[in-house]
Amino acid sequence: MAEKARIAILISGRGSNMAALVYAAKSSDCPYEIVLVASNVPDAPGLTLAHAEQIDIFAHPHKGLSREAHDTIMHDAIVRSGAEYVVLAGYMRILSDGFVRKWADHMLNIHPSLLPKYKGLDTYQRAIDAGDKVAGCSVHLVTAELDDGPVLAQTEVAILPDDDADSLASRILIAEHQLYPSALASYVTREAHPDWILEQVRQRALALEETHERLSFGSPGWRVGGEKTGKYFAYFTQRLHGEASIGLLVKTTGIDEQTALIDADPDLYYAPKFYGKSGWIAIRLDTGQTDWDHIADWLRKSWQMVAPRRLTRLSEIADQF
Ligand code: GAR
Question: Are residues 220 and 96 in the same domain?
Fold first, then answer.
């Protein structure tokens, strides 16, 4: 199994979501490990639990410190722990823009509502008062706006006719404990998900001039030129014909180049079964170490090989600047 993602959890209180993450991480196939639990509240009950589970803990009260100064202390402790991700679990502090920026795309939060509904506090009563039939919880990426980043996963929880805020909160908490570990696992392994990989290729292929996407024998492909006369310059392959699980097919100048590439880097390049003879080369996208600039270069080269002259001429001129 690939190396586990290293997680720092920030809490302010009880830490039941933290506990759910800690226990999930004990499973050998969990893709993350908890390397630190940190708090702004030195006597937060969650810290005692984390310590008993032999996880490093760190606490520093925020009292008397500016938001930035306190965040810097927390940030330094997180960096020292070697964590790659920050997971907020009932961390009741508004974070400074600087801290949020440092952990952009690497910081998650759980919030007890179906975002974008009911940001902030008192989410349960607000859902009940609004007459909602369902409430729930959301895991989202943290951005500078409170409870506003892209939602990664949600669980709906039915509101019962005699629910009050407390009864609803305790049911939502059960849902939170299920949702957070699984959402975190998906997020830290996202770069191995075919959908994520496809999206990376798609963005780069469609950034080239006059391109569009079209399925070819069930696989996404990208063409340059008009809808009718366009030509394919790349295909995405996924577990096709027993080949490596995910790859990108692009055009080379021919068999010689194809052979040279495979000889030079057989872990990255292979001959795609049904296209090999025409000089197409397959590049593995499932190594976990894909250099996306390199993929963008390949897409451009392949595009140049099939694009109409009027387009390549323009791009040659642009390349000179
Ligand atoms: C959880 O319900 C969490 O969703 C909420 O605080 C609680 C913490 O409980 N977070 C927020 O409201 C964030 N805006 P826990 O300490 O037992 O995990």
Answer: no
